[in-house]
Structure formats: C-alpha cells, structure tokens
Design a protein that fits this description.
nine-stranded mixed beta sheet, single chain, Spore Coat Polysaccharide Biosynthesis Protein SpsA, Chain A, alpha/beta, about 350 residues, 2 domains
Amino acid sequence: MPEISVIVPVYKAEAYLHACIDSILSQTFSDFELILVDDGSPDGCGAICDDYAARDSRVRVIRQENQGQAAARNHALAIAKGDWVCFVDSDDAVHPQMLERLRQAAAESGAGMSMCRMLEAPEIPEDFSAPVEVSWELLSMEEAPLVALFDAGNYPGWVACAKLIRRELVQTHLFCPGRVYEDNEAVCHWIYGAKTVASIPYSLYFYRTNPGSTTQSRFSMKKLDYLWALEGIIRFYSSVGYQTLRERFGTLYAEEAAGDYHRVRHELNDPKAARKIEKAARRLGREIPFTKAQLETMFSAMHPKLVRLYWPLEGAARTLREDGVSGLMRKAGKHLRKGEHE
C-alpha cells in the first residue's frame, strides 16, 4: 500500500497539466499513488492522464461526468489507499521535496497534518526547485495560533492544497459537491481535529495565478459560493467557542457581502440575486450576531441612504439585525414623528 495518496482533479488544464504531473512524479519521496480524476474535461486532458498511467504504475486515472472539483476530490478519496492525503490542483506544481518534507515534519512532530507555504505567480520561477533544509514549527491549533495565521494573511491555512493530512481525518468532513471554495470550511474541521499542525517555513507549493482558473475568472454567480463557505466557517468557529476567529471571519464576510451585492446589483443588474445576498446576511446575523461595524459595512452598500440617515439612531444596529431594513425604517419613522411633536 502506498503511504501517500496525491489527488488531482483535472478539468480544462491542458496547458499546465504536464508541468503539474511531472512535478509530482519527480518527488524525492516515491512511496505514493497519484490519482488523476478526469472531471469530464472536454480538451485533451483525458488522453494526457492515460499516457502517464501507461508509463508509471503509481498513476491511477478515474473518470466522471463533470461535477466539479469537490465531487472529483470525494471520488478519489473513496478509492485512495494511502494513510496520508495530499491535494494538488491541475494548473499548479510542487517542489521536488514537498512530499518528503511534509511527511518528515508530520512524522517527527506526531501531528495529524503538516503544511507548507505557497508561492503565487503566473509562471514557475527558475529557482523554485532549489533544495530546502529540514525545518518545521509545531503549531497548537487552539485559537491564538489560528488568529496569528489569519492576521498574517496565511492563505494556505484555509485551503486543501499545500498540506499532508491523515486520510481518516479528511474523511470526517468531506467536500460539499457543486460548490466553489468548497475546501475552506472542510479545512477548518480538519485543523481542529488534528489538534496540532507542523508548519514548514518554505514555499513548496506553486500556486499559478491563472486568470482562467475556477477562482480567478471574472465575477460570476458561482463566486457567491465564497459567502456560503464563510457562513460555514463562522458557524463552526462559533460552535467551538473561537470568538475572535468568528469576528475575524465575520468582518471578512461583511466586506465580501458588500462587494458582491454591489457587483450583482449594479454591474450584473440582478436585483433578485442581490436580495438573496441581503437575506442570507440577515439570516446569519440573527443566528450569530454581527458587530455594529460589520452591519454598517454590509448595509452601507445595500442601503446607503438609509444607513446615512438613520444609523446614528440609538439601537439602529440591533434593530437592523433583528428586524431588518423595514424594522429600521419603522424605528426611524417613529423617531421623526416624535421629533415633530416635541
């Protein structure tokens, strides 16, 4: 049985797939299987996958009708044989020592997960493959270290790639099919379950900043899945008592909701979708209250005139959170009528 299962969902990545697969098969650590999931790709990706499988016994190819990255990852997990799992996107690449260093860090630390940093660029730098020394830091996955990761802008902390994770841990919370950004919430559960994470201070994962990728293409309604992912993260951290992280992600949610509302309402001219964003924010706010600043961020974009006129009123944030825009307007009306009679 292979020690590690490397999982790569493949869809419309013909231009970069060779570089991705070659970087994996060139690893200094060789006891792994590579599972390529052809997610109904309409280009030549399927043939490329088959060619590698014919030449290297570590490569396994499975196929499915196009269902998205989450379903492809779940499909691979169902047949994976390794004790550890590593996810790689088909337009990215990895350092020759990535698996070796991630495995070594996990083994020496006893952690259920190890992770490295990401290098983000349009093309792989010439010095990306330079050898790296053994180095790792053991992070306790209590709230304070996670807050430090968030505040440092540590993007890999909440994505599935650039990590080595025990398969049994991954299977406690699978990916949600049909969603973009489906890994963000899942990673929260894995980190919490791992208790400790071995963090490597080197960029061993190359993240291609490709304008045509799933998460970097121009705005579409699928981008709203990020709000759904943030909802899940906020609920999870609230449930385990990580209030600082709940507030951090609450602020991120407010900023994203405000920006998405403006884009769908004014750029895409879709008032129905804009109302969905507002209703989702209100629903989440009733369940897990936003701060006054977070509410102001969201509703300044959604109802700028209303907020400008009535936000200074005492209790405006609480009224907006509990009763919505109509409640705030009723409160404002009563305030104005009271002023007329004084």
